[in-house]
């Protein structure tokens, strides 16, 4: 009985419902994509994603510094049966449609360029090695 209560508690929040709606039909989404779609801070989105994962809805994967979330592929049939009517009801909601539209536009992530040292700089110690690496990277790019 407690499991059923926890499952319905996980669906009792608008943000979590919007997250599930965004995940529907997608292979996986990065937290930053979800932040952009919901127009919410990272801490809020991550907290709700963790709750959905703990409740059995989502699977997560770390890729470097990024976290990716997707609906569980082996989602319990009972959970899948609960999700179907919820998704079909939310499909007509204006905020969910707006979330989907924001998700379709790519996020412009800033490119991080390492600092490039001056040409006449000499490496004087081990602490200057990162500048040598930066100059090699700059000449390649």
Q: Can you walk me through this structure?
A:
With 141 residues, the protein is mostly helical. It has 7 helices and 3 strands; from the N terminus they run H-H-E-H-H-E-E-H-H-H. Strands 1-3-2 form a 3-stranded antiparallel β-sheet. Strand 2 and strand 3 (66-71) form a beta hairpin. The N and C termini lie far apart (59 Å). The relative contact order is 0.13. The model is unreliable at 110-118 (pLDDT under 50).
Tell me, rounded to a whole number, the average pLDDT.
77
Indicate the overall shape.
Answer: globular
**N-to-C series of helices and strands:** HHEHHEEHHH
Specify the biggest β-sheet.
3 strands, antiparallel
- By secondary-structure content and strand pairing, the structural class works out as mainly alpha
Number of strands: 3
State the end-to-end distance.
59 Å
Helical residue percent band: 40-55%
Poorly predicted spans? 110-118
Quote the beta fraction. Answer: 5-15%
Please state the CA-atom Rg, rounded to the nearest Å: 21 Å
Walk across the major sheet and give the strand order: 1-3-2
Number of helices: 7
